[in-house]
Amino acid sequence: MNPAWSVIFFTTLAGAAQGMVVTLALSKLAGLPLGPGFVAGVLLIALAMLLASLAASTLHLGHPERAWRAVLMWRTSWLSREVIVLPAFIAAVTLWWWMVRSGQGSSRWLMIACIALAALLWLCTAMIYACLRFIQEWAHGLTLVNYVLIGLASGCTLLAALAGWRHEAAYLSLLAPWALGLTLAAWATRTLALQRNAGLKPKSTLQSATGIRHPLLRQHSMGMSAGAFNTREFMHGMGLAVLQRVRWALHGLGFALPALLLAAAIGTGAQALLAAAVLAQAVGLLAERWFFFAQARHPQNLYYQVVA
Amino acid sequence: MTTVAKQLALVIDLNVCVGCHACVTSCKQWNTSGAAGPLVDSNAYGADPTGTFFNRVQTYEAGSFPDTQTVHFPKSCLHCQDPPCVPVCPTGASYKRKQDGIVLVDYDKCIGCKYCSWACPYGAREFDEARKVMTKCTLCVDRIHDELLPPEDRKPACVKACPTNARLFGDVLDPQSDVSVAIRERGGYPLMPEWETRPANHYLPRRITPAATGGNGQKEST
Fold this sequence. Notes:
The complex is a heterodimer of chains A (308) and B (222).
Chain A: H1 5-29, H2 36-59, H3 78-101, H4 108-130, H5 141-165, H6 169-198, H7 206-210, E1 217-221, H8 229-233, H9 240-268, H10 271-294
Helix pairs in contact in A: 1-2, 1-4, 1-5, 1-10, 2-3, 3-4, 4-5, 5-6, 5-10, 6-9, 9-10
Chain B: E1 8-13, H1 22-33, E2 41-42, E3 50-51, E4 55-64, E5 67-76, E6 94-96, E7 103-105, H2 115-118, E8 126-128, E9 133-135, H3 141-144, H4 157-161, E10 167-171, H5 178-185, E11 202-204
Parallel strand pairs in B: 1-11
Antiparallel strand pairs in B: 1-10, 2-3, 4-5, 6-7, 8-9
């Protein structure tokens, strides 16, 4: 597939915001003493990220003015379900922020609702990809596992950095090991998915695509003298060297370097290391999401091998 | 699974398609002028022209020289009986008609998210870059049911244009129709059966016949 930046920004930003809200809600539910100023500030940042991700996803549409129609087919479409759950999650986080801001404190049920909506949103986002059975790289349970773990890891890392910045020392010392653990867990499951995808055998072949049952079969013409939607949407056109570099960024910046920086921050207590971990992970996870799309081989590409 | 009263479809005979692209141009002409159009053409006279088409003719070569077969392969929406592109549409703009099984896009409801095109293993859908909506073969729905046209013209434009009669059109659920007989008697097959989309369109495979002149009797010695 040709990775779309709108979808890359949407899924990474929303995922981190979900992870941060879930971590904060679990912390509050566990009875950690967090100041209302800190909670409101974190929620406001999460809201800004969610609204930015909503804007990015809208940019993906040819007709954003008709986006409201996308709530209609929730019975069959994971995309429709996502379009319902995302605003519901934003509304719940807004309500939580407003209650904290106006001195009413964090409602237990509202925080549970935020956790449930974040989980539902991860499910919808992941299933949009995992339900396409013929995109074999995506049609697997690891797609959901990775969306959840990567969102939790990046959200927890960001929350730890914010705790360090706002001098919530006790909370930071509790959070940083969790951020490190989640980052390592996400790295492990993402690596599992990459290994699985590297060994996949495409179910469709040129023979099954055309029904011409000859072992020696090649395309001479895709039926057009230049490109078309089929060559633009489903092929990234990048060479192996670029893919290799993105893969290094995925592993190095997305997981390895943030894990090292988090470990160093736990050891030294230096807050600048936390900010560096957030920055590295942000870039690395954009690379991760780009690779998620680029690695998916759509069977339609079998029909579009030779421009002529 | 959708239950349909009829399932209109094309059956394409790979024995007689000569790769002339008449079906491609007639499709473009009819659909750009009609209810499905206009279909964009960008940079049409430049070095890198691109545009929206509902039908393409591709060319494949099987075997190695000198034993090769050139196969011209027309490709359009297969109007699957279990179309994976329909349930994923978030707005209901993509739908399968109950009365004749045609898979269509309602351009007024399409938000241009392109998800349906990801969900089609055949690459049958093309996003129109000018109108920002998804488009696809309509099986000339605005033509085949038009009672103002003479009965012999109530066929898709591609079928009418084909000079070798490589394209048959009819109801594949009616066992007595021309298309059902052709599929049954000549080994008609669907594309990518592994994804269980149950395409309505079928293809008639090449029949390998011995050369008519000079070929027989050369190696009859025991």
